[in-house]
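Forwarding these from the shared drive since the link keeps breaking.
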Amino acid sequence: MKLSLVIPCYNEADSIAQMHEQLTAIRAELEQRGPYELVFVDDGSTDATYELLTNAFATWEHVRIARHDRNRGLGVALRTGFANAVGEVIVVTDSDGTYPFTTIPGLLDKLTADVDIVTSSAYHPQGGVDGVPAYRITLSKGASLLYRLLVDWRIHTWTAMYRAYRREVVEQVPTTDEGYLVMSELLVGAIFAGYRVAEYPAILRVRRYGQSKAKIWKIIRSHLRFQAGIIWRKLTTPGRRTRRV
């Protein structure tokens, strides 16, 4: 198995050191599992993100840094990352370490032969939240609850970025959103296409470095529009089935 780690970054100068430290901690284990690469996407950062990434990973093999000339949003950054990744399995993770990089091996262990996507799940009964503001958790849980009602009740968390995909999924499931909605768009589209999903119970931690770029009310509106589209799709496409492990 060749693995690609895709890590979008936008003004993450304060996070690079801890990212390097955590990835170094699992470097030997990743090497034991087979070939791997790091694919960073600098989404038009205006701070020293690009320079710090370049310096921090200068001695690592198979590191690629794609760079946007301006900030284009998470959805575009992910598609750039996928286009630059060559792995059979692609792990996407937050650059700020809200889900620790050291849990990547555990995430990969859940990608068994009968699973196409493993998604981290803070809202799984065995997951949890540490220090994240209550209002953000309430809004995120509310969005996930609606997706559970509309798509698949058995999946607890629908908004997490931290996931592992088989390459076929990101090649066959189209996405169009430029922002944070892309994560739900990709998961919903994959389930409707019949791909099999497993959850990885995880602890979502408050960001320790830098500042969040999320614009909460804009994200909420995008989820509501997308969920309305799901309702319309279900009403106009009878007999659709979904699968999940």
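-- next protein --
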Amino acid sequence: MSMNQNHKVFFYCHHCGSPQESAFQHWTLCLAEGLKALGIPFYSDKNYWQLSPDHDQYLFAYNPEVKPEDCSIVIVNHHWMDYGKGFPKNLFRPDRKYITVYVDSLYGINPDLWKPEFKQFDVILRCHFNRKIKYPYNVKPWVFGISERILDYTDNPMKFNERKSNILWNYRVRGHSIRVMAKEKFLPSLSRILSVDDFVDNFNAPQLSEQDALLWKQTGRRHYPNYYTRLKSSAASACFGGHLEPPVWFNYTPPYIYLHRALNKFFPQSRRMVLQWDSWRFWESLAAGCVTFHVDFEKYGIQLPVMPINDLHYIGVDLDNPDATVEKISNEPNLLEKVGVAGRTWAIEHYSPVPTAKRFLDLVNLILTKS
């Protein structure tokens, strides 16, 4: 394969079904929006992501005249695999002249990544990446990121000094062990500084405009305009998520997978990593200019392509000493405003669609230079 600046990209997409089975492919959506802005042509095996309820136009548009072999990059995401399709036919054909990319945001460790067939991908972009896991060589850190939809609905946030002195602590899914720990260990102290807003929007279809209803359906019931309004007027948002697990220094396949499960009972909590840490909420909070609370990324091994700085772009909590964070906020009156403003600037600069697409193309070109 040779260096090619004039890329054409082919996406394999899962069809959007009911709101409960939408297979929301946010991470590839962000990438495609960036490619479109850069003028990089892309195609797909089916129509996906309808742009308006008034016309039958899609961001990912099927063109029967363009096949994967006509492109320089072919992308598969884990939803394609999850819905029983297996690998696309002839994806790894010996005479291929395209780069193969797998976008993986599956929860947990995902043992598939160690299987021989997944090592055929030129690169696997792994959301929820943790540096305490010894991944195969072709697995690179990636994230959910910020889509144009999120940018639109978090535009023109309130100035920080005009916001309510509160924190949104309103998860739809509450079973994450990190969320339970943060609520038990951190929230009681934090609530002495910030009032707590725990209202959760109902999963059932809300009263929405036609455009918002379309977005609600396609995002798998994750689009609530009132939620974005609350983000833009709140000082902070709790974005804790994931589970504590022992590190993985070995191939996550039998028999080692059973060793890892056994370690769960004995491995000290202070040295564990956090899995399933990434979320739409994390990026929505940053884009809205909220002070974004999560665990300390450095301590728990969380890895992004471009790392945020604790106490500058977000506030990372050490769950072994959560009171230290509250004390720091109390002692630095300007800290919250500084973090809210800087976090929004940092997130949009590095993780909105255009920088996401540029980072992707840089990675692909690097692979080509080594081919």
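The mean pLDDT is 93. The longest strand covers residues 55-60.

- D.
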